[in-house]
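Lab meeting prep.
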Amino acid sequence: MVALFRTVVGVSVVSGLLVVLLWSEQQVGVKTPAHIHFQAHARGIPEGGPSLPQGHHTDTSFPVSEKLKVPGLGPYNVTFLGNTTAVTSTVAGAATPAGQPATAPTSHAPSSPGVNSSHKLVFTIDQGVPRPATPKIYVITPTYRRPEQVAELTRLAQTLMLVPNLHWLVVEDAIAPTRRVLAFLDSCSVPHTYLLGTASRRYKGANKPRGVSNRNAGLKWLKGHVKEGVIYFADDDNTYDYRIFQEIRATKQVSMFPVGLVTRLGVSSPIVSGGKLIGFYDGWIAGRKFPVDMAGFAVNVQFYLKRNAPLMPYNVGFEEDGFLKALKIKPEDIEPLANNCTKILVWHTRTVKSLPALKMPDSDKVTKTNLNHLKSQMVFQLPYGLS
């Protein structure tokens, strides 16, 4: 009989901590502002949920709405439904255009008679008035063929899905579009443009600047298609806190912020005092005027165009420095973000490189089974003599 009065909901949060909520005949569902549905205990919501207005009880059959402020997310509408089941229909990654009200993707249906599990208290968090999401962010991501390519693009896409008003430029170092990347983008809900940025054959080995041809192809596309916004270079193997994108929207000329896991020092960051940049902390200064990581700065599009839209130099180790110097920005005019560079919201993570897979045999166990479908999703060792 105890089970009729108590439901235990185990909620998994990002850190892996389990929060067990004991509510009488209740189960909690929280929907993120990016419209990705999962079970969670939202920060800022009191244990047991927000208090209801006087005179209302949790066993009512009509919805009760309240305004609730969730830290970092702005005002949201919280709807309580007594003795009903919330049926959620969402479009993953759908971004609400700036200036337009967000539509609540949740419809509510009465509980099915005779089904005990449908008698729940359900509340959802839906964005009421969208926070300003202008100007648009243009993320340039260089990529190249390797076993981890689609896995890392997928991880980055999951972050970008949380960011409204963003356009993703995926630029591949290839001589022709690759089926694996095109197939991935076909299923990706992030607004994107796919470009080719084939590296010059004259650069080889240690003298080959990685990702420069890709980034320059993205910059050329921006010059021909965009008049305003913010440019950000996001490598596909890095890790990003989605909040960094909201930060860089404020970029007026050039903004900078810390990047974790860079060199043995563990971080590459501007040194800020009194809100002004006074130096740089980096494990490889090497005479650079701007010793920063590629993921540690953003550039306003209008400012970039006024500076004649320079490209990134083919100079190993000095790509960022050369690009920023070409913008003719003074160090004292750099805009420090991430709470005056006191927070790390980007990490220069590195995936351990995997060897290409060995060729699958041409047997019936491969060609007539699921293995044949998996082949198109893998990177195999090239025949001897090819590169």
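Slide two material, second protein:
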Amino acid sequence: MKPLCLLLMTPVVFTNVLKKNVDLGCPDPPVKKGFQADKYVGTWYEIAKMPVPFQINQKCVTAKYVMKDNGRIGVFNRAIDIESGEIIIAIEGEAYPPDPEVPAKLKVEFPTSNSTYNTGDYWVLDTDYNTYSVVYACTSIGGVFRRESCWILARKRTLPNETIDKLFNFLDTNGINSKKLTMTNQINCD
């Protein structure tokens, strides 16, 4: 009877160990209530990010958002290559809320070289529009793993440490591991 009991308990124990040590699926954090795109547009500086392949060896990362005539938000990302010092216009795209009832849950489309679009989530979790913004995207892979992106943005090249700590705490409280974020170099950018 003991071996059968142990056998039946193994999946439960294994699942509990996995939950504590591996990110299972995506969290469902709250997004900014009453998000107003017209107040959000303008230039944002990347303060911290979860590293993603398309941002390797970059510093001085900025995102400029503009309202477009078609009602969408134009997205213009810019960075400096750390090795060459050259300015990279990384990508231009458009953002829009698929559900107007939840305007902070945006989709972003970036054109590819073969005339198609890469589409991803861009959820504004929190912003005061004038100082900081917290952006998150997550794709669940079979409900077992997640591929996530997160950015802390600011209207200036720096944020006070207490603000960064507050935002990291906000992420952790909402199931997003702030320890995965790395700080972005915003020095010698001009």
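Talking points for slide two:
The chain is about 20% helix and 40% strand.
Confidence is low (pLDDT under 50) at residues 3-21.
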